[in-house]
Amino acid sequence: MSICKSVAWILIVFLIFLGGLIAPFGDILGTKIGKARFSILKLRPKKTATIITIITGGFISSISIGLLILVSEEFRQRLFVDIPFLQKTLDESKKALIPLQEERKELEGKIIQKENELNQLKNNIKEFRRGNIVIKRGQTLFIAEVNSSSNIKIDFTKIYNEADKFVRKIVIPINKEAKNILLWRPSDITKIEKIAGRGGDWILLIKSATNVLKGDNYVFVSPDLLENKFIVKKGDVISSSILGESDLNLKSINLEIKSLLRETMEEIKLKGSQVSEIKTNGNFVRKIKDFLQENQNIKFKLEVVSLRSSKTVEPIVVEINISKITS
Fold this sequence. Notes:
The chain is 56% helix and 19% strand. The protein has helices at residues 2-35, 45-71, 73-130, 152-171, 186-196, 250-270, 283-294; strands at 133-135, 140-147, 182-183, 201-208, 212-213, 219-227, 230-232, 237-243, 278-280, 300-306, 310-311, 316-324. Helix 1 runs antiparallel to helix 2 (45-71). It is elongated and about 115 Å long.
């Protein structure tokens, strides 16, 4: 290691000495060429002298690099092995960076979207504090059944008039003479008529497209057509859970019932239900207490059972059944 260091220092001193010798030589050569009015490629003597000086400097650099390659194995390793390897690694890193950049753009887009939603929410809160908003954007204003066997256009006219009357009472209750404040795009109705014309039973939801202030003259709405189908039938077990001996107490059971009702809500939403809450039969509380008094050290099951058949917009009524599991 000490020998390598000595060689390196000798090489450095030699390169400095060599550069010191060649540099004045190049300067003198350039001066003489300038005075001799010598010209290369029809250039002016002054420019020719400058080019000669530049070539001399390049010659010094070439000799320096050549000596380093010849004498230093470490320099050759760095120049011919490490640099290409580093370049290859850099190229691979750039390729690996592309998906990250795309994810970053996607994340930035989501952040912008959330910021817009937050700003909208702030505006809504301000309006609520002033007490001006009477209808929120996306709020369902009216629900009606549409039967394709009847005259759809007549049904739409009747539905519109009833919905318009309902909304007027909310937005402009003082103005008794106002009419036709609901506005929807004709293309939406054409699309709905086309779908309903295929047959079957449907539910028409009329939702507000914007926040509506009290006293507004118009309410922009967006109609949506949903299939009127059975979400649950009487006796269906919508969700269930098995508990062990350690859970045989009211506190654990209450927590599990809340969890089951959340699962039930998620399940009926996935099936297309438009209800915002689940109604429960209060008798199940007494049944569970009686069950706990009579049973100990067993496994048992909780089931959320539908008490009625319910379609898309009809209430979901359930009870919680508890039963022991026999092994």
